[in-house]
Amino acid sequence: MIISISRGDDPAGLIAYLLGTTAALREDASLVGIENLASFETAPKEMAYTASLSDRVRNYILHISVSPAPGELLSEAQWDIVWQSIDAELGLRGHQSVTVAHDEGRPHRHRGINIIHPDTHRTPIIEQNMYTRGPQLDHEQNMYTRRPRIAQV
Question: What is the rounded distance in angstroms from the CA atom of residue 86 to the CA atom of residue 64?
């Protein structure tokens, strides 16, 4: 399983890349779920509003991409375990997120997630090299093989 993480400040651009726009949805993409958001149409504005409540954070959107190993197909229950593990590992439970499946080439999934919690307005401290290396998930044991250090600010 390959997990990559990048960070930015444009939820509208990320959601348009992942799913398309309300005028022209991507044919190879499907909305899997949203969390702590009213809808995917309002998600960019909601995420930007939440970000405006923190004057310290500029790049508040994480783009997490997960690709199973070649030939590996995950059930919805297994995808849930993957996302729950990532959210727990990065300290992002309860944060605003949009999850999308892409079927182009090899099926994979993306999540755009606001690192600022919508209720507490706190952010996790995420190890800087997570953005370049990503966590390594041992799918057989449903756990990471490398543990980043994460604390709340």
Answer: 9
Reading the block at residue 94, the tokens are 């309860």
3-class state of residue 120 by DSSP: coil
Q: What is the DSSP letter of 12?
A: H
Angstrom distance (rounded) from CA 14 to CA 60: 12
Could you read off the pLDDT of 85-118 as tens digits, one per residue? 888 888 899 999 999 998 877 889 999 999 999 9
Spell out the alpha helix ranges (H) of 69-152: 76-90, 130-133
DSSP state of 53: T
Phi, psi of 96 (to 5 degrees): -70, 130
Q: Which amino acid is at 57?
A: V
